[in-house]
Amino acid sequence: MLAEIKGLNEECGVFGIWGHENAAQITYYGLHSLQHRGQEGAGIVVAHQGMLQGHKGLGLVTEVFSNGELQALKGLAAIGHVRYSTAGGGGYENVQPLLFRSQTGSIALAHNGNLVNAMDLKLQLEEQGSIFQTTSDTEVFAHLIRRSHAPTFKEQIKEALTYVEGAFAFLLLTETALYVALDPHGFRPLSIGRLGNAYVIASETCAFDVVGATYEREVEPGELIIISAEGMRSERFAQAQSRSICSMEYIYFARPDSNVDGINIHTARKNLGKRLALEAPVEADIVTGVPDSSISVAIGYAEATGIPYELGLIKNRYVGRTFIQPSQSLREQGVKMKLSPVRGVVAGKRVVMVDDSIVRGTTSKRIVAMLREAGATEVHVRISSPPITHPCFYGIDTSTKEELIASKHTVEEIRQIIGADSLAFLSQEGLLEAIGRSPHLPLRGQCMACFTGNYPTDIHKARSLFMATK
After folding, report:
1. 78 lies in which domain range?
2. What is the mean pLDDT of residues 456-461?
3. Annotation: binding site
4. Is the four-CA dihedral 365, 369, 370, 375 of positive or negative sign?
5. Which of 329, 279, 285, 290 is nearest to 307 (CA)?
6. pLDDT in tens, 339-360
7. For residue 328, what pLDDT is reported?
8. Active site residues
9. Rounded distance, CA 55 to CA 43, Å?
10. Binding-site positions for Mg(2+)
């Protein structure tokens, strides 16, 4: 469903390219394809003739680069970023890529994820004299690099990577190289492609299709990739841990035309719908999905049950970002502006409304009410994920347990709150089996922390490695 109105948002998307004469323009199109991963801000930094220069701003990619800024960005290498704020909050200063200049050279940094020990590291760095210009956890990584006494820049990056914990997919651009790093658990997707002789890096493979690149492979957990005039080489900064790719990438975040770690998102979501139909069938007249992420699930549910799939809800793609409205009443009006029921389809019908998740419950309640107002005689809600009972600390903006409706209410209580005739969530086992990752990996290589409370990393206390070695 729409990220702006449902309260479940991912931090960002990253894109990088090395060795193309139109690097900035390619990055622009790559970011446009990743716009669903963040709508608060966007930016691009290019490397040109021994210098880094960039432009960033608040808003969508098309808004940030609307007055000729793109044409001014010359160079053969670039990194870009689209952001939805989680750690550190919003504001222009937190829009990435972050660009740092010093006497020894400049670095630009783009980050997808969240560092769970950023606050502890920041306090340690400030005690030793560091001054921070943003409230983003990403800036911590730049300070760690600059404070390293390792003999080479590559080794400084590796040392810095040993201090940070949590989810991170880093792109780091200097005047002479592009560095790519993925955390040892591989929480976030990150892929490598080729565009002619150029190397391309993206959060999702859909960006490769948009720019005409060919998919090569995934970045491995714990891997550091260095791309320069000498080509691409791979090293390790840490041993890969048990893979823990975010389950919400398959359920909600990624575009249907992307492949995440070899699995097509549309196919995975159809399988979620089929499994949901097996676990929670219901007598109804039509099945409809909440746009956009639940459409594939609804199709799978309809195919498995034989109930016709209908376009019962329409998304208005030309409404501004109403999620910034300050009051609940205005946010609910934003839901009505973003989504509209198709009265001629749902009136007089028993409707199965398929959605990907319920976070706080307010949006589900509003959609159920809209369907009833449009004449639906029954509304049965089916959710293609288990109940979200625990906050995420790896880059999704559910930071407190209290804001999660499933953490304090039973399924029956949630059904009553949202006003549905029936409500069912997909089981944890059903989720893992339907997505279809390797059965030989623990939890099939997925992070299930928001459903179980079992976090792959220590989220409460950072190790004092930095203090111990300085």
Report:
1. 12-241
2. 72
3. 246, 293, 355-356, 392, 447, 450
4. positive
5. 285
6. 999 999 999 999 999 999 999 9
7. 46
8. 12
9. 6
10. 293, 355-356
Domain of 24, CATH number, reads: 3.60.20.10
Q: How many residues does the chain have?
A: 470
DSSP letter string, 172-200: EE-SSEEEEEE-TT--S--EEEEETTEEE
pTM of the model: 0.90
Binding residues for [4Fe-4S] cluster: 246, 392, 447, 450
In terms of DSSP bridges, do strands 166-173 and 191-195 run parallel, antiparallel, or are they unpaired? unpaired
CA atoms within 13 A on the CB side of 12: 33
- From the list 219, 224, 221, 220, the residue with the least C-alpha distance to 237 is 224
Domain co-membership, 120 together with 30: yes
Using one digit for the tens of pLDDT, what is the confidence trace for 139-175?
999 999 999 999 999 999 999 999 999 999 999 999 9
The predicted-structure confidence for 196-212, as pLDDT tens digits, reads as follows 999 999 999 999 999 99
**CATH number assigned to the domain comprising residue 449:** 3.40.50.2020
On whether the CB atoms of residues 169 and 188 are closer than 8 A, the answer is yes
Which of 332, 346, 352 has its CA nearest to residue 423? Answer: 352
SS3 labels along 354-370: EECCCCCCHHHHHHHHH
- Interatomic CA distance for residues 210 and 241, integer angstroms: 32
CB atoms within 10 A of CB 8: 25
Confidence (pLDDT) at 336: 66
The span from the CA of 293 to the CA of 162, in Å, is: 35
Report the C-alpha gap between 89 and 104 in whole angstroms: 30
Residue 75 lies in a domain: yes
Token digits of residue 171: 């792109």
